[in-house]
Amino acid sequence: MYETAFNYVYGNSLLHKLDPRTKLGAVMCLSILVFREESFAGMGLLIAFFLLLTGISGVRLSFLLRSVRPLLFFMFFIFCFQLFATKGTPIVPLPVLTPTYEGLRLGTLLSLRFGLLLLYAALLTASTLPSQITNGIERLLRPLPLRYLGVTSFDLATMMSLSIRFLPSFLENAATIRAAQLARGLDLRHDLRRGTTAIAVPLIRRSILLAEEVTEAMESRCYQGQCRTSLHELRMQKLDWSALLVLGAFFLLLIKI
Q1: Which of 45, 66, 153, 199 meets the CB 3.0–4.6 Å disulfide criterion with 5?
Q2: Rounded to whole angstroms, how far apart are CA atoms 41 and 257?
């Protein structure tokens, strides 16, 4: 398969061996820390912790950095907006839009937050099989009374798992269609509207066809949308409790900074 971010990377590291519930809970806790952190020292610790986990997992850092690439323009837009829209001490006085030190700080923090969220999510999917993510989400949501809303934890877990599984295929199709259109002489630099249409229309069509194929495959396997047992039941091991202990200590460290 075309290698893209958010794909599973085979490995036998400690991170790969963790229970998916442990990794899902860790990503949720780290996301909370990323959103509440207001200092560069704390963001530096979160980046260092990510690099540590990446080294433990054995996944190439360049592979994980691809997850940030699609949102680089959005992150740059957020940075520039905060840089010029935030009131404060001017960096360089300009007649119309004046960049400020406060805007520089806030824009940098927001860009780092978005980037770290994507990187932690990419590390989760790189070290966890989609089937394991489905089982983990289903077990975490099972205590909730979702049946009163007409859905089950298994339904939500299946939808999330399919979304995660479709993302690499979506990026692969987008890259293939873009290369094909460029080979046919499409000029994206001078006619952005036409270029976007030329890529978006076949991409949507191919995504719908892929969804139909997945639906037929699930129906042919008698999928009923009901909770099923698993060959390998999830059980928390000593490694999982040790990882949660380390995560708790890191959480308290950042809270006190």
Answers
A1: 66
A2: 8
68: containing domain: 19-128
Write out the DSSP string of 230-244. -SS-----HHHHHHH
Which single residue is written with the structure tokens 């998916």?
Answer: 20
Residues 116 and 146 in one domain: no
Burial of 147 (0-12, 13-18, 19+ CB in 10 A): exposed
9 found inside a domain:
no
- What confidence tens digit (pLDDT) does each residue in 211-222 have? 888 888 888 887
Pull the structure tokens for residue 139.
């077990």
Beta carbons within 10 angstroms of residue 23's beta carbon:
24
Give the number of domains in the chain. 2
| Residue 188 CA to its chain's centroid (Å) | 27
Tokens of 29: 């806790």
Helix axes 20-36, 130-141, angle to 10 degrees: 80
Q: For tokens 């940030």, name the residue.
A: 68
| Residue that the structure tokens 């890259």 belong to | 175
One domain, residues 117 and 31:
yes
Cα–Cα separations (whole angstroms), residue 186 to 174, 197, 205, 206:
15, 11, 19, 19
Q: What are phi and psi of 90, to 5 degrees?
A: -65, 140
pLDDT one-digit tens code per residue, 159-200: 877 877 777 788 788 888 888 888 888 776 777 677 778 888
pLDDT average, residue stretch 113-123: 91
The tokens for 205 are 């069509």
**Crossing angle between the packed helical segments 101-127 and 130-141, to the nearest 10 degrees:** 100
**What's the whole-model pTM score?**
0.76
- Cα–Cα dist 207/90, whole Å: 47
Of 166, 152, 158, 168, the closest CA to residue 134 belongs to 158
Our measurement of the distance from residue 69's CA atom to the centroid of its chain's CA atoms, rounded to an integer in Å, reads 12
